[in-house]
Structures are given as C-alpha cells and as structure tokens.
Amino acid sequence: MNRLFGARARLRWIHLILGGALLMPYFLLAQVGVGMAAGGVNVLSSLPLTLAAYAAALPLAAVTAVYGLVRPLSVAAVRAMCAVPGERLAEGPARSWAARGRTSAWWTLHLGVGAVISGMTLAVPPMAVVLIALPFSAGLRDSGLGLGWFGTGAEPYAAPLLGAGLLGGLALCAAGSGALLARLAPVLLGPTAADRLAAAEERAADLAVRNRLARELHDAVGHALSAVTLQAAAARRVLDSDPGFVREALAAIEDTTRRTVGELDAVLGLLRDGDPARRDAAPAPTLAADLDGLLARTRASGTPVTARQDPGPVRDWAHLPAIASREAYRIVQEGLSNALRHGAGPVELRIRVRDAAGTGHLEMEITMTNPPAAPQDQAPRTTGGRGLRGAAERAALLGGRVEAGVHEDRWRLRAVLPLAEDAR
User: Fold this and answer.
1) Whole-model pTM over 0.85
2) pLDDT, position 22
C-alpha cells in the first residue's frame, strides 16, 4: 500500500499531473490545427480528433525542449518530486546536441504520460464515486447512470466493487508511471560525457587555484615562522650583551609578522570568496619589489646571506614577466626557509638570467647553497617536504625544473625558469 499511496508515490503523482498541465498549451495549439484540418469541427466532441490533437502536441513539446534551460527545470522537478539522487542528474543547461536530444525525449515522455495520468485523475474519481454510491441511491439508479456507462447488465450491488477497482487501477497506473519516469530520469537527464568532462575541468581548475593558494600560505607562513623563531632565539642569547642586535631582531620580527599577517588575511579572504576569478588573483610578492626585504629579514635572524644578482639581458628585475617574478621570489623564499630550519652556516644565493644553451631563449637560474647541519643539530621535519614539492610545482608551471640535494658537501637548491620572449 505504501508504494501506491505513500509520500513518494504521491509526489510522483503530482509530478505527472504537472506534466499534464505543461502539455496543455501545446494541446490547445494542436487542437486548433486539427480542428481546422477537420473542417472547423470541435475537436473535443470526437475522441479520434482529441487523440489526434494529443499526438500532434507531443512533437511540438519535443521541439521546444531543445532549448538548454529546459533541462535545469526538469532536473529541479525530478529532484523535488521523484526521489532521484541529485548526483545522478546533470547540472546546468544542456549545451551539446546529445544532451538536448535526451532532454527532448524526457520532456516529451513526461508531458505525454503526465497528460494521460492527469486525464485519468480527473475522470476516474467521479465515476468511481457514482459507482460506489449506486446501490444506496435510487435516484442514481433511476437516472441511468452507473453500470450503464459500461454497457453491462450487472446488478447494482456489483457497482461498488467496480468503483473500487477503478480507483485501485488509477493508483496503480500513477505509481507505475511515476516509478518508470524515476527510473528513466538518470538516463535522460543524467550527465553526458561532455558534461562530465566540463565538470572535471571545473574541478581541476578549482583544485589548481586552491593548491596555488595553499603553496602561498605554506611559503609565506612557513618562512615567517622560521625567521621569527631564529630572530627571537638570537635576540634571547644576546639580550644582555648586545642591545643593538636585540633591537634590530625585534624590529625584524615586527616587520615579518606584519607582512605575513597581511598576506595571510588576503589569501584567507580569497579562499572564502566563491568567485574563482578573484581567487585566482591572489596577491603575491615579487622578485623585483620584495627580494631585498626578504634578504634583510633573513640576515636579521643571524644567518649571513651573500647574494649575487645578474639580470643579464633583462637589465632589471622589474622587466621580468610578472608570473616569473612571483614564482622566483617564492622559490628563493623556500630555499632560505630550508636554510634557516636545516642549515648550519652562511647562505650563498645567485640569481642570473642567461641565454639557454645558445638557443636565443632566456632562462633564469636560481642557485642557493649552504652547509648542511649535523644530524643531531637538525630540526625535526614536520611538513613532509611540502615546501620543496611546492617549489618544484611552481617551476613546472613555467616549464622549468627544480633540483635539491647535497652537492659537493653543501646543500644546494637549483631552479631553472624559462622566460617569455619579450622579457628583455
């Protein structure tokens, strides 16, 4: 009984009646055409002509369903009333002709079957009520209503059984039709291969943006925490003997934390924003504008840094492509963070732009070396090497590469970044 009269069955019944209501404009238009073709006859006065108008209305409905917005309308109705899981249905308008064809088939089926069920819903209950009341009303029996409708000679006491059978048949037809549409909905309204590809591309783009923002957070916050920790430790060691160094260290801590809080706030704001275009515009420091400050803050922690810069053909870091300047800065920042956390001595940094093996194409080479700390002095790793992976991902975005490891008894980080042709 629950399958015939339960909440799910009732909602699907309403869904079918909605389909019948949606067919009415098409039916009225087809009724005019069929009536004119039949010589101005009232279509509703003839069952064959009514059926002809119904048949003519279905192609009209199919044609209008090729418009893309019909699919989201149908999907919303199916989700609300047919108990079909949302993940099995497509999102958004139908764009490809394959998706439009499926939507047209669904629209025609929904409206066609819904019209039949709607007609039965309007006609069967009054007929069943008359039949059920027939044995108890002399007026109904004398009027010729009831079993005379069916051309039978059955006794009036059989009429209630027939009426109950009609109601049961209506409920069975409605439940069966609703179940059929619910089964066909994922087939006709489900995502096509093009829909799945578009969704996968959208997810990949969103994941790429989130990964980039995660790298920004890791590099900015990780470097800041490493620098602040070492600056505070160095200041504590010489608190009584070198007040000038302590003041410089505290000023560096203040500057580092202020800058990092600003970057953190900007990136978190972009992560909360639902607009992918704004999230893709996350601010980031550049080699041209922020390298000197980065080196100064690193030196303030007590680690000597020797930097040699050779812009070569580009003449000035400000002439670098913006993306190359941003990614180069973050790679240098990650190298300095590694040196602060795991190194044991002065850092040598060299940045230069050169011709790539005489090909005429420019590339930037970043090389950073420092003595590795003794095993007992190394800080324990808690990040799993995500920083070096992030540096490699940054270089790969530009078609470059990153190498990191021990080279001639020193830890070396080397990155090579191709530059655009107009970076001169």
Assistant:
1) no
2) 94
